[in-house]
Write a structure and sequence with these properties.
The chain is built from two helices and ten strands. It starts with a helix and ends in a 7-residue tail after the last helix. With 119 residues, the chain is α+β, with helices and mostly antiparallel strands. Helix content is 23%, strand content 43%.
């Protein structure tokens, strides 16, 4: 009788666990490209050499996961109706600042000591 009770208990536990395992869902991923390695010479502080700031970013990858539908477009991924786009300016260099992916550095922050810079 104990063995029968254990078998029934095991079947109940497995049956309750099946719905959670059955919803596998989906994922979508897109390599947007755009890796960069930028460098910029900042104006020199008084009586010293110019500062040098640099940053690096690998290719931008966007991804999502959903329960029902996932798809990949030319510059976006979509999961369950929600789109995630590639950044058009993943890497950008201005006259006194630069951005590599999510990292931004500026000459002002360099000279104030907030960013690490090279002389």
């Amino acid at each position: 009788m104990q063995r029968f009770a254990l078998v029934v208990l095991a079947v109940c536990v497995l049956t309750l666990g099946l719905p959670a395992m059955a919803s596998a869902g989906c994922t979508a991923s897109l390599n947007c490209g755009g890796a960069c390695n930028l460098g910029l010479e900042c104006p020199s502080p008084p009586y010293s050499q110019p500062w040098w700031i640099s940053c690096f970013a690998s290719d931008q990858v966007v991804q999502c996961s959903g329960n029902n539908t996932c798809s990949v477009g030319s510059n976006f991924v979509q999961c369950d109706g929600v789109k995630t786009y590639c950044w058009t300016d993943w890497c950008y260099q201005g006259t006194d600042y630069m951005r590599c992916g999510t990292t931004q550095k500026s000459c002002e922050r360099c000279q104030s000591g907030a960013d690490s810079c090279f002389i």
